[in-house]
Amino acid sequence: MTAVGIDAIEIWTGKLKLDLAETFAPEKGEDPEKYTKGLGLHASSFPDAHEDIVTMGANAAHRLMERKGLKPDDIGRIDVATESSFDNSKPVSTYIAGCLESVYDGDFHHANKGERKFACIAGTQSLDDAYNWIKAGRNRGRSALVVATDTALYARGDPGEATQGAGAVAMLITEEPSLVALSTEQGYGSADETDFLKPNQQFPSVDGKRSMQVYLARMREALEDYESVAGASHPDDFAYVPFHTPFPGMVRKAAVLAYRHMIRDTPIEEDLAEEIGFQPREEDYEDREAYKEAIREHMDALGSTAAYQEWYDAAIEPTLDISREVGNWYTGSVHIARAAALKRAAEDGRDLAGEVLGVGSYGSGAQAEVHAETVRDGWKEEIDQLNVDEQIDDRYDLSFAEYENVHDRHNHDKSVELEDFTIPESEFVFTGRGRMNERTYEYVE
Ligand code: CAA
Question: I want to staple 363 with a disulfide (CB 3.0 to 4.6 A). Which of 121, 138, 155, 219 is the partner?
Answer without folding.
Answer: 121
